[in-house]
Every structure is written in C-alpha cells, then in structure tokens.
Design a protein that fits this description.
Shape: globular
CATH architecture of the largest domain: 3-Layer(aba) Sandwich
CATH superfamily of the largest domain: Zn peptidases
Bound molecules: zinc ion
Strand content: 15-25%
CATH topology of the largest domain: Aminopeptidase
C-alpha cells in the first residue's frame, strides 16, 4: 500500500514537472515584421541645439504661485514661435490660462475623431543647496559627453519639444494629416495642471470634441531592468494610479508626563500607523502587471521563465518577490506612505490630540472607497478616526491594448527601435492625462527615453540629462507616430502581433 502510494506521488511530481517544463518551453513572444524602415533626414544638430535652448528657460513651477517667473514663461513662448515657425504659421494656436499653448492642425477628413499629443514645459525647482552638485549648471542646456544636460531634459521638455520637432518637419515636407490633431504645451503640470491641462480639457469638452487618442509623457524604454536581461523594454502607460490622503486622528486625555496612563494619543496613533503598514492592500500578479513581464519573459533565466510560464504554481512566490522592491510593489498594489505626523508641544506634557497623514496611491483594481474600508478594517483601535481629506482622485481606467491607436503607437516604436520588446504597464506617478479621462478611452503615457536604473534619481533630481542620440530617436519616433496615428484607423496599416 505504502509503496503504491509513493509511486502515485512520484507520478504526480513527474507530471507536474513535465507540465512546468513544457509550458516553459512553449513560452514565446513574437516580434513583428515591421522594419527596417528608412528614417527621416531632419537636421539633427539643429534639433539638439533647439532642445538645449529650451532647457535654458527656467520655467519653474513653484508651490507658492507668487514665485512664478513670468519672464521665463513669456520668453519660452516667444522662443517657441522662432524655433517652430511653420507650426505657428500653419496651425491655429490659442493661449489657455495665458501660458499653456494649444495648437490645432486641421485634417482633410472631418469624419475622423481628432487625436491629441501633449507634454509640459514647466519643470520642478532645483533643490536649494544641490546646484553645485550638477556636472553642468541646471539651466545651461549644455551639450557634452554625449548628453544634453538640464532641468527638464527628461521631464518633460524633451518630450514636448520633440513633438513640435515632428510637426515642424512634417509641415516642411508638405504633409497634411487626414485626422485633425491637437497639440498642447502645458505650463503647470508639476503643480497639478489645474490652470493648464484641466482648462484645455474643459475647453475641448465645451466644444464637443471627442478624441480618438491622447499621447502624453509617461513610461520610458527601460534598460538593465533585471540582471541578466540584455534587451531593453519599451513600456506604454495604459493606466495611471489614483491618490487619496487619509488622516488618522485620536483624542485622549492630556496631562503631565510624570504619571502616564497606558493609553496615550501618540502611542495609540503610532500603533495604528503600524497596523496600516503591516496590512498592505492586496496585489495580484495578473492582468496589466503580468502583461508588463510578458515580452521579456523569454529572455529570463530558466528558473524565472518557468515561474512565469506556470503562474498556477508560482503566483504567490512572484507576488512576494515583487512586493519587496518598492517600484515593482508600486505597480502591483495600492501603496500606503505615512507622510505627516503631528502631536505634542512640550517635552513633559502628554498631548491630547495626535494626527497622522497617510498618502495612498490607488491601483486601478481599487477605489477610494476600498482604501477607506481597508484602513478602517486594518486598525483595531475603535478610538482612531479615519478621514479622507483634500483632493482625491480614482485610478484611471485601463486603456485597451487591442485598440488600433495602441497598435499604431507600438508600430511607431518598432520602426525606430528595432526588435525591442514593448509592454503595456501602469504609470505610478501622475500626469496631466488625469484631466482628459472624459475625452477619450485611449490614453497612452510614454516617452521613448532610454532609462537606466540610475536615471530614476535624475528625474526631479540632480544631473538630469538625455542622450544626444536618444533625443534624435525621440524625434524620429515622433515623426513616425504622426505618420501612423493621423491616418484613418479603418484602412489598417498591417495588423501587428501582440
Ligand atoms: Zn512630467
């Protein structure tokens, strides 16, 4: 009996092992047959020089609106007209809230819904005291060592300016789009976009515009993402996280610190914050998070490949691994970050009141309501008040990756970046696209910037820069995207594999 039982067990193990191996071997990712295409012969040196000039305007968004530097913004707008004369001559332009520029390029077929591409030209300030740490001054626009240096080189002047490079080039070639296109250069993304992008979105809504798609800043082409993987991964942000602040508060009897009761405001609140930390919201390695890994899975070492090919067996392990790394954890689930803690006024007095703020970034699988319910559940002390406050927003919906405009964005990447894996992914930061959710279902957040792990610190940090060759690729991509996205989606350019 025992022997037969063992044999049976062995049989099951062999069967499972066989399934794992077969599924691993069958894992595949088909590259499309797109190129090579002949790229465009624009004046690369002049384009690089223009980005360098754009970086020299300190178009800084400050939290305090009194610090707004009108001269820098006006200067930038004047410069735009000189840098892109055809855009200004042949497209309609209007200024929204004075400093955001909205352009309209009339298409030949008004049966097609218009498309839109945008970016922002405001930047975050350079943190005081770090100016000296920059290899080249932050507003120098220095072109050196194969890079263009300056605040905004990554976020998002390279994206914004390369868009207009593309349009200017197409105009120069005498191109007229079938589809009407809107372009926006937003001026206050870094402080929420309420005067720029929000006003543009409301303006278009009032005019009854429905957009076929919107392309904005977002995910890069990630290089060296995982050890052992040679290939870069181009990511297209098809969803964006939401956000809510939840205040935890407690009122206790105050008094002298010489005879403290067991329950104190600070002690109880600290415990509650700890409970929230220890009870993360659930994250599941499925759908969008899983899709992000699909194209690179074939390149992984066998053991990882086996894990990805056999999620029925390995999902909990993968989830645990991804949860350990902050940036993959952020893609996996709603995250909680305690950002403020307030209590106490004197070293020997028990405070009567303690308050803490926890900042949640909401995954598309969750809602604000889910987050509040989760927090109330996680905290065992019934005396703790749980209150969402301030402005909050739900996560975006997830754009359909089967939709034709998504396929055209992919095609445009492939035409410039040969044989590169492309994956849909979630944008864990916030962009101006949040204001456009009422105008289109197809929102794509991407910039074809080659980003290595150490570049993450350059965004909003020191030594922000973009590669000269990479910037030329960005302009090429922009031209290809304008070609591919401004024609009718009915007469399909050859359908691509996913
Ligand atoms: Zn940005």
């Amino acid at each position: 009996m025992v022997k037969r039982g063992l044999l049976g067990l062995l049989g099951i193990i062999i069967f499972i092992a066989a399934v794992v191996v077969i599924r691993t071997i069958n894992l595949s990712y088909d590259m499309p047959d797109v190129g090579p295409i002949e790229l465009h012969d624009f004046d690369e040196e002049a384009a690089v020089e223009r980005l360098s000039q754009a970086l020299q305007f300190p178009t800084i968004s400050y939290d305090n609106p009194d610090e707004f530097d009108e001269e820098a913004f006006e200067g930038f707008i004047e410069w735009m007209a000189e840098a892109f004369p055809r855009v200004h001559e042949e497209l309609e332009m209007e200024r929204v809230s004075d400093y955001t520029l909205l352009f309209r390029w009339e298409g030949t077929n008004d049966a097609l819904d218009p498309g839109m591409m945008m970016g922002h030209y405001d930047v975050v300030p350079v943190e005081e005291g770090t100016e000296e740490e920059w290899t080249y001054p932050p507003y120098s626009g220095e072109v050196a060592e194969g890079f263009i240096w300056g605040r905004g080189a990554l976020d998002d002047k390279s994206g914004t300016i390369s868009t207009f490079e593309g349009v200017e080039y197409m105009l120069e070639k005498g191109y007229t789009p079938e589809r009407t296109m809107y372009f926006a250069a937003n001026h206050d993304e870094e402080v929420g976009g309420l005067r720029g992008a929000l006003q543009v979105a409301q303006l278009l809504e009032r005019r009854g515009v429905e957009l076929a798609f919107l392309v904005d800043e977002g995910l890069p082409i990630a290089e060296e993402i995982i050890e052992g993987i040679e290939s870069p991964l181009a990511m297209i942000g098809v969803a964006e996280k939401g956000q809510v602040n939840i205040q935890l508060g407690i009122t206790r009897e105050g008094g002298h610190a010489s005879m403290p009761p067991r329950m104190t405001a600070i002690g109880d609140l600290a415990e509650a914050v700890g409970e929230v930390r220890d009870n993360q919201m659930p994250g599941r390695f499925a759908d969008l998070v899983q899709a992000t890994f699909d194209p690179i899975s074939v390149e992984l070492p066998f053991i990882y490949r086996a894990a990805l090919a056999n999620l029925w067996l390995s999902r909990p392990i993968i989830q645990r691994q991804l949860s350990r790394i902050p940036h993959t954890n952020a893609a996996l689930r709603t995250t909680a970050a305690p950002t403020m803690f307030e209590a106490g006024i004197k070293s020997n007095v028990l405070p009567a009141r303690a308050e803490a703020n926890i900042n949640f970034r909401i995954h598309p699988n969750d809602s604000v309501e889910d987050v509040v319910a989760h927090v109330e559940n996680a905290i065992s002390n019934p005396d703790i008040e749980v209150e969402p406050w301030g402005r909050w927003r739900e996560a975006s919906r997830v754009s359909d990756t089967e939709a034709e405009p998504y396929q055209r964005v992919k095609k445009s990447i492939w035409e410039v970046f040969d044989e590169i894996p492309i994956a849909p992914s979630i944008f864990v930061a916030a962009s101006d696209t949040r204001h456009f959710v009422g105008l289109t279902d197809n929102i794509y957040r991407l910039r074809p910037i080659r980003a290595r792990p150490d570049d993450r610190g350059r965004i909003h940090g020191t030594d922000e820069r973009v590669g000269v060759d990479n910037y030329i690729e960005m302009v090429q991509f922009q031209i290809r995207a304008l070609h591919n996205l401004t024609t009718s989606f009915e007469e399909s350019v050859e359908m691509l594999v996913d």
